Amino acid sequence: MTLEAQARAALRQGDLKGAASAAGALAQARPDQPAGFFLLGVAAAEAGQIARAVPLLEAAVARGPEPEHLAQLAKLLILLRRDGEAADAAREAMALSPMDARTFDTIGCVLARLGDHEASLAPFAAAVAAEPDDLEYRYNLAAASGFTGRLNEASAHYETILAADPVNARAHYALAILSRQTAQANHVPRLNAALAAVREPDAALRIRYALAKEHEDIGNSADAFRHLSAANDAHKRSIGYDFAQDAEIFDAIETVFEKGSPVRSEGRRGAAPIFVVGMPRTGTTLVDRILSSHRDVEAAGELQAMPLAVKLLAGTPSRRVIDGETVAASVAVDAGELAAAYLERAAHHVAAQKPRFTDKLPANFLYIGHIARALPDARIVCLRRNPMDTIWSNYKNLFGSQSPYYAYSYDLMDTARYYARFDRLMKLWQSLWPDSVLQLSYEALVADQEGETRRMLAHCGLEWDEACLAFHENRAAVATPSAAQVRRPINADAVERWRAHEAALAPARAWLQTQGIDA
Known about the structure:
The protein has 519 residues and is mostly helical. It has 25 helices and five strands.
């Protein structure tokens, strides 16, 4: 067996020490060839040593680019948040015509992480064509199909997965949220069977969320709430969340900004991005689609560019992107440097074919002070929705079971507390930067689409464009739970949805009223 075959066999068996030994011997014996360096890098990456792995993979690519090597390098660069280099490596790998399913799938995953879901379709489809029985590859293709509006294709792929694996929780959940279910056509019996069969907590979480969504679609409010309550109670216990974690962040932001902007330098003037912010599930995707239907605006997606730029320049050692320590340290960040760091990261997600772009990360409402300092000409649109609809919609949606941004959403009272702090923080931002921040009512937008759209465009410094009223014809990909809704004309279906669960939500409503919030 050759040294390369030995290293690959050891990697398959999880023998990282053996893989590194064989790969090291290969690199020493053939220093002008890429294989040894590539396999050393893969072994280092498998051991969690990403910073060590990247130079080894770069050394392999420098000795003669191969699709597999470039794809794995792109995958690691994404983990290091080096998005531009990752995009270049992934696209070069695709251009070199890979031969194996794993490389195609890796390229697709990198492009999807970059938000280019349309481009991810081709490599994902190639991976499935090469290995049609691999359910991971097929799931990735199904998800990309759904994000890009190919709902029939997505549904067919999910059904193929479930035919092979009837308790595949990710496929069950994805199929449930793909479209509106009816009393005549739903998956409730199949989901009940899957729930009875699963043993892993994360699988049960997803299937209960799927059941809750389908029960709500068909009008079974009590069953929907029962499944949500069971899922969320269990998940909150598993992640050990305490609202104090988020309270610390809000406290730190208010301490830093309550006396106004702690300006350290001049920010970046001129044409700036449009930030669409707010609590999730309040209409941010709808507004992003309206704005990006404008002839002068493109959608860059939900960028992590501002949180990562603040974290990088604050220089705090914690592993969390935002915490009290990072917010406090960000006072000393130079506004011009912050603008440059943000725009450099954002540029990797912008085609730059239009003068303006939207950044639709809802949690950027936490960073409005930093945005206003760094990009004083930026415009911010904050979505506001009925408090109870906001709380219910947050509670019933699975945002990402390990995402720290939305850990509050697994408990009704935590969600109410979070809403109250969001409301208080938005009052602060509005008082400090009234010209930069527009608070837009979801209900008002639904009731008067053209009037509110005109107001929003004027705030953003954009001329009127009729295309904004036909946002549902926008064919760009949507990778949020709102994907199905924003492909339909504007409607009032989601207004006052919380009233179907009025009794269960009563404690949260009563608490909000004690905080002076009209709910």
